[in-house]
Amino acid sequence: MLYFTKSYKFTNFFIIFSSSFIIFKLIHRCWYCLIVLPFEFKFNFSLIKDIVIAIIYTCIWIAYMLKSVRVSNTFVNGRRVMVPIVPLLVNCIKEIK
């Protein structure tokens, strides 16, 4: 819902969600290593590969969300805008003269 309403909270939500995805993967793999791997004879490298891919994916998207001008210009709804008062006063004084 935050994505479709273009809320400014979306970037923070996305970062938290992506980070929790990595934590979930790590917990899942640890659980797998404790339950299943003691009964197997060889170590499967796909366990490490999945976690590394998830970390790379998350780092790329978090960096994009934090640094992108397009993202900061898109997700603006609901954000309070601070209007500088000095230019407004200068314009009012010019109109009075």
The SSE string, one letter per element, is HHHH
| Average of pLDDT | 77
The helix-and-strand class reads mainly alpha
- Indicate the proportion of strand residues: under 5%
Molecular shape: rod-shaped
Number of strands: 0
- Radius of gyration based on Cα positions: 24 Å
Low-confidence stretches are none
Task: Give the assembly state of these chains.
Answer: single chain
Put simply, the count of helices is 4
Tell me the helix content: 55-70%
Spatial gap, N to C terminus: 49 Å
User: Largest beta sheet, briefly?
Assistant: none
Task: Name some characteristics of this structure.
97 residues; mainly alpha; 4 helices; 0% strand
